[in-house]
């Protein structure tokens, strides 16, 4: 089971790294054609999302060593994927919304598989809050 989680984590990280890089290094014409004209989103937002995707992918790779990095990156990924799904649905592009929705399901499954890491972070947060009281 441990290897399944690691492989899935690596695949999701690569997906986000490539998606982020494709947005970061895209020309303004490509951004306009793929996102601005279709979805009505500003080009600056697409570049920001690209940076967040790349950072989330890198953090998920760092998540092999740090539980906090893994969980934080998964939370960012969930927010990005919900935004992508809702944006495509709002634009009436139901078929285009299926890709981020499917990846969202995979990321949620990865979060479920890493639930022990999430419990550890909650315990650490509880210990920190009781120390500060």
TrEMBL record:
For membrane topology, the record states: Multi-pass membrane protein
Q: Per its record, how is this protein called by name? A: DoxX family protein
- Would you indicate the residue range of the signal peptide? none
Q: Which residues cross the membrane?
A: 42-62, 69-91, 97-113
Q: Which organism is it from?
A: Paenibacillus terricola
Q: Report the locations given in the UniProt record.
A: Membrane
> Organism's domain of life?
Bacteria
Q: Keywords of this protein's UniProt record, alphabetized?
A: Membrane, Transmembrane, Transmembrane helix
InterPro entries in UniProt: DoxX
